[in-house]
Design brief:
Number of strands: 9
Helix content: 25-40%
Distance between the termini: 40 Å
Strand content: 5-15%
Order of helices and strands: EHHEEEHEHEHEHHHHEHEHH
Number of helices: 12
Strand order of the largest sheet: 1-9-8-7-6-4-5-3-2
Length: 341
Amino acid sequence: MLTLTAVTSSPTLLPECQTQRRRFAISAAAADKFPSFLPKQMEEIKDPFARKLATRIERLPVNVSFSEQSIMSSCVKPLIQSKQNPVVLLHGFDSSCLEWRYTFPLLEEAGLETWAVDILGWGFSNLERVQSCDVESKREHFYQLWKSYIKTPMTLVGPSLGAAVAIDFAVNHPEAVENLVLIDASVYAEGTGNLAKLPRAAAYAGVSILKSYPLRLYTTYLVFKGVQFNTSLDWTNIGRLHCLYPWWDDTTVSFMISGGYNVTRQIDQVKQKTLIIWGENDPIISNKLAVRLHCELPDAIIRQIPDCGHLPHVEKPDSVARLMLEFMQNYSQKKAQFVPT
């Protein structure tokens, strides 16, 4: 009988994590200079970790077949280079790289070469001239970004719907992915379902509701239990920043009517070693699906984080960082055993 291994100990691989987080917050309290392309509402964000990470967001030109001009693509680049495979952090549905505001600095301080990349159609890229944001476009865009800038096999990390993005990418471009980390993976939905059949007018009406503040605040309340109201307000503002761009409606409708991600049949094609991380109290996706995913992936281990919901990298960043570090260290050690001397 398969059981989920719970993470109950405090992080041992991350020295003085709480001290580091306080130091990060103090340094972020100084005057932050945000990139000019971020929405002006970024100035209103109170979370010091979000503010600090936002100062490092860049736009890199990425050439793709479906656009005559380069797409200025948003990401956070690493400050260091490592002998280990780079870690590339994706985000969940309709989100941005700011989702990693708490875990990113922990991974970086631990010495990992860490990227946070915005998936095409979401985040802070310039999508004014982009017509297509379907699965194929998202995959090609990410591949071209990897080919142009990352250039080496990576540990690819996908939370929630980002796990579907990661699986789809790993199966189609195995040369780019050394191993996978899937966090509370949303990989069993049949794409966008009936939403793909909506008339365009109805689809645009639906996405206008999707970005509305009341719905976003309610979603934050559902996902993060026990969070103070003022924090919920700030996290809601962080989560909808990218929705304030004029092209957000078009790119979201494009993804919706395309059918979205349906990767169920790709799961058993994943060849990479995979770490599955799951929040024990995820109110969005049952941990029964974590067990199913573990059974269907050819080479996977699974770890559960107690007292944690759908986004462990936001709620329990120390635990997520420790699990990722242990996974990568163990993988590197086993790989080294098979390298001829």
